């Protein structure tokens, strides 16, 4: 019984670690759009393996960008896999998802590589938070700083 309870403790999902948190000048949605466009344009193979989902919460002036590994997404076949150099990369919707009427963004999906959250603090000041994989989070941080200039 003790072994069974110990194994159950190991399988519980853990929250992604906080990598960066800061305040930047700029509109929260403009920063999010800029970062997701840079992420999608990045030609490196390990970045091509990711699918980015941008969600906008206008009622709470917040956005989040989730990065998912396409190798583990449903609907990925050899004809559209990023592992195939001849693939037509057309993953689901690329438009932002606008979710009105929410008080807090909630995600129980911990299979993402990283999440970038932008939240309007004051006029033209945005609080940004990056959680997840350190290597990818540092790349996102560089893109974010370039967008904030």
Number of self-contained structural domains: 1
* Radius of gyration (Å): 17 Å
Distance between the termini: 57 Å
Which geometry do the CA atoms define?
A: globular
Helix content: 25-40%
Judged by helices, strands and strand pairing, the structural class is alpha+beta
**Mean of residue pLDDT?**
80
Q: Tally the helices.
A: 4
Q: What can be said about the biggest beta sheet?
A: 6 strands, mixed
Poorly predicted parts: 8-13
Order of helices and strands: HEHHEEEEEH
Count of individual beta strands: 6
| Strand residue percentage | 25-35%
Strand order of the largest sheet: 1-6-5-3-2-4
Strands, helices and their partners?
Elements: H1 2-10, E1 18-25, H2 28-41, H3 45-48, E2 50-57, E3 62-69, E4 97-98, E5 114-122, E6 125-132, H4 134-148
Parallel strand pairs: 2-4
Antiparallel strand pairs: 1-6, 2-3, 3-5, 5-6
Helix pairs in contact: 2-4
Structure description:
The protein is of the alpha+beta class and 149 residues long. It has one domain. 28% of the residues lie in helices and 29% in strands. The protein contains four helices and six strands. The protein has helices at 2-10, 28-41, 45-48, 134-148, and strands spanning 18-25, 50-57, 62-69, 97-98, 114-122, 125-132. The chain has a six-stranded mixed sheet.
Gist?
It is built from four helices and six strands.
Key words describing this protein structure:
alpha+beta; 6-stranded mixed beta sheet; 149 residues; 6 strands; 29% strand
């Amino acid at each position: 019984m003790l072994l069974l309870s110990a194994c159950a403790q190991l399988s519980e999902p853990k929250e992604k670690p906080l990598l960066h948190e800061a305040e930047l000048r700029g509109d929260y949605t403009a920063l999010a759009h800029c970062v997701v466009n840079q992420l999608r344009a990045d030609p490196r193979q390990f970045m091509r393996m990711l699918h980015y989902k941008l969600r906008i919460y206008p009622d709470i002036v917040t956005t989040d960008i989730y990065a998912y590994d396409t190798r583990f997404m449903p609907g990925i076949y050899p004809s559209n896999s990023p592992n195939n150099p001849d693939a037509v990369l057309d993953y689901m919707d690329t438009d932002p998802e606008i979710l009105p009427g929410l008080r807090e963004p909630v995600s129980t999906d911990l299979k993402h590589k990283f999440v970038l959250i932008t939240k309007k603090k004051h006029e033209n000041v945005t609080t940004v938070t990056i959680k997840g994989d350190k290597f990818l989070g540092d790349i996102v941080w560089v893109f974010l700083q370039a967008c904030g200039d």
